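Bit of a strange request maybe. I'm writing a small parser for structure token strings and I need a real example to test against, not something I typed by hand. Could someone generate the tokens for this chain?
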Amino acid sequence: MPNSRNAKQPAPTLEIVEPLCAVFRRHLKKEGQKYTPERAHILDAIIRLDDIFEADRLLELVKADGFRVSKATIYRTIKLLQDAGIIQQVLVDSEHAHYQLAYGKRPHDLLVRIDTGQILPIDVPELIAVRDRICRQMGLEPQGHRLQIYAMAPGAKVVEH
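Reply from user aminoacidic:
Good idea to test on real output. This should exercise your parser:
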């Protein structure tokens, strides 16, 4: 029986992307701020989520990991991460702020059901092609985009949150 530890497997093709912690550290340094363990844990939790989240959900996740962090620290760190371009606010409703990881070239396009409050990720390859063509025409390199479609079932009523 062959030893699986010694078995040669083809290396996966990887695109090297600057680690988000390095991007965040550089932004903090520019702002005269420190990369604290609390901020590191918050960033790690967001990366693990890789989904839309609210500040309260992020706070619960960080605390569930055993880290002591205040709600104020969560909100201050969210603001710093937005300023660094690592996360972006998602406009779902006017009552609650939602956020998602935004750094990198992977699109984060959404369909927001205003009748149910459901948020669905959508894949729109045609939009990516248009984005890339526009950037090429202007001599630019695309760094991402955001598309949010708001929709509801015919005859449905908007859900109040």
